[in-house]
Amino acid sequence: MKKTLSITLILVLSACAQHDEQSNLGGESTTGQPALHSIHDTQLRLMMDRMDTLMHERFMTETQLDSERRKYAQRIADSAQKLSQTVDTIISKMPSLPLTPSEQTTFLALANKLHDQTGQLYDLASRNRLEDINVRLHQINTTCISCHALFREMDN
Amino acid sequence: MNLFYLLSLILFLCLSGNAASADNEVLSLLRELKAEVGELKQQLDRSNSRIGELEKKLGEYRAEKPETEKPDMRITQPPVAVASSPAKHDDKPLVTLGDVKGTFKIPGTDTSVGIGGYVKTDLLLNSVSAGADKLGDQKLLVSQIPVGGASGENSQLTFHAKESRLWFKSFTPSAWGDINTYIEMDFFGNAGTYNYTPRLRHGYGSIGHFLAGQTWPTFLNAAAIPDILDNGGSAGSLFLFRHPLVRWTQPFSLAGTAMEWQTAIEAPRSRIWDSTSPSANSNDPNAYSFFSNPDADRYPDLVTRLNFSPEWGTLSIAAMGRQIRYTNSKLGLKQDAWGGAVSLAGKINVFNLDNIRFMAHYGNGHGRYVSTDNTFSDAALDNEGNLYLTTSYGGMFAYQHWWNKQWRSTVVYGYAQAEQPDWVNQVLNQEVQSLHANILWSPVSQAVMGLEYIYANRELLDGREGDLQRLQFSARYNF
After folding, report:
1. Residue ranges of the domains in chain A?
2. For an interface test with A, which of B36, B43, B47, B73 has the most A Cβ atoms less than 10 Å from its Cβ?
């Protein structure tokens, strides 16, 4: 039994170690902001998902739900602002990255695009435009995937 | 001489050989550089092609889901027409989008209105029936769980759609703060299984921080009510009822955390076990008529509550003071006593969308607020006209797990108990408990279907018990 437990523990630990190695691959480790923008992006989507689950709360009144949605919108605005600041930091770190001029141009274009989109998300969330937030989140996600697809593949 | 020519020839051949070798190296280098430039060009082409592809997909996505533009909340902007009649109103918008999601504006006003609701059908298979036309067969009422086998049939089946709801809300910005109104109805107005009498659930208005009307008691934190199919609620929860009240809510922030302080005066309704009343002394534990409401209240229930809303959930602490009053003109009795209660409730987000919900409450004279309807009294009146407050307490704990965005489950356990004088009717409830476990499926956000298992039990002061097991299937469609 002890042997089985030990083997299981070793397997779990090695799986964790492999996961860590994989998560460190790619350009994000060289931006000086390891996965911080990904964390903000994940937080934004989680908050949006939590706000969506309010739809199923049948014991709260609609005005209470509106109030709860406004609280989530405010949190999304705060998170969008933090994400925007992280993107600024990534842009400032770009000269130190091992990129060719053409890669720098593409990288900068995508980073600026992400910056603009997070600004728009902040604006929408601040004004409680809940129905438009999801579309903007999808756009941010697309930009993130584009950047990761291009620069993480190159790094590999 | 021959030797000179020979050496010159050798030198010439060596030098010409080195030059040829250098040329070859340069050519080779140029070829490598050309290949590298070609490769980089291809890489750039691939990058541009990928960006173009993603932008195309985004364009297609936008085309599928066009953004709806609407006026900014509380900012005066020209209204945007979403529907118009070509015959008479080409230049005037008939309907404009409201300031809150899902609303539209009344023409010529700044008032946004919204309507909604849902249709819910419940199929309940009860291990034992509470009796003909009893609400206890339609939702959990622990006080109606049969004890002693005197009531209805075993394996009884009930179908109803009484929980179907309609609501109307309005929102009007004003110099004194936002004016909100809200009305919500369901069809639980009559206990008859097939009697669909409409009932007002909520009906209130608010201006700024001031609310007046009928809604959840301030003592109850509605955010902590678990996501169950049953409309009755957990036995350990505070009673899910609504009553008239007047409330002030003051929002503020403490160390960056959003908070609210609420204070309210609410409708009093003393519920008493009156030893002088014949129905209160019935020996039938299934009589369901042990308590009376003297309708002699002089002070409102006084409630105050503090709400914390950090990012990880919501938490509330509430305190209540209430006067229980009894008068009987025939006997010349006038009795009153002040009681109080406290409660702690909340909803805490854990992993991903999973959450914990809980309620805990303790007090005397607050039996009307505890468990499901008519479970405990606020006070008991002895034969000499003395009033004794009932001490009651309970708690509820629920865990909700989201298997994915379509499937979720909730498990809830609740328990409540009352401490009453020895001389009260021994068929009154002493303790109640319940367990709810469900699995719900939402293929789209507007529809929910699910199956729920319910176990509930009540124990009388004389030690006898009643158990109920129920399987409930529900389908709900929002609009």
Report:
1. 35-155
2. B47
